[in-house]
Amino acid sequence: MSADAQSTPFGARRKGPKTLPKLPLSAFSPPNSGTSEKFPLPPSPSAVRPTSIIDADVVSFSAWRGLTGEELESKIGGVVLSFQDQSSEEVQRAIDQLETTAEGIPVIAALVPFALDEGAPAEPPAYLSNSSKVPLALAATFSTPSAHSVSALSWALSADRVVDISVQADLVNGDAGWDALEDFLTKSTAELAGKGTIVLSNILPPPHDLSLPLVKLLTHATYRAFQSHSAAISLFPNVYLKYLPPVWETDGTPLDESQLKEWKRRVKMYLGHVVEAFGFERIIFGSAPLHPSLPSGRWYELARESLAELGVDQEAMDAVFGGNAKKVYGGSS
User: Is 26 part of a structural domain of the chain?
Assistant: First the structure.
């Protein structure tokens, strides 16, 4: 060992610049896609459109036909007709006259009334006992859990029914409404091992205060409650969410372009989280209730653009706007 080496203390920093490894030029080049030297870009949101559309919530077929808009009208592959707010006699007459198509559009299923607060029926309504040309799903409303509502939903699911539930619990003021919904689902499905299917509406998007500035929404208590509780609900494997027009208060006049953009920004905040929690396989598009400020055709455009701008692919788009509804409602009895 030389005298210089012996005189250099261990760990002493050597003078002069450190020699850095040289990176190959390929490290600064885009990946080779096989077709282009440029980085691959995601598809434009305007290019991702459903191949075919099933509207899974049509209340008034005649009114719906007049408000669909060009693209929804041209790509419609089926509808789910809702008779939820009609009397038993009216429902029976409607089912007797129901055909597998309406004005040339396939009828995938019909939603018929089902009262949760009456408990498990001793005998099913006559329209459920009689044969129907199209599958029938049950339509109910939930506000607060009770022994009757739990037994009614358990009865329907044990019969392997599809149950559409409009959630009318208070989802804005604290966690109580969300907790009630989770408790209801837990007790109703506890011993059923995934039988039946539940489709929840009025959650995507949920009730919302439009006066709340968008910049405050991310940290607001209502949005945080939505995130945590919707994620908890996604753990029920047989629960789907229906993607419907927001029930947000307006003056009843059609939304202008500025308002539509603002609504879309808010819808995307809720939709993005739901896609993460549920996956696109458990979201079902529908257009009811008919909103005075947002006709079904305009709602379809807003709903499609909101989903496309999240960067989803064609498979996801086709599932949300048709495939999921066909899978869920087409197999009902």
Answer: no
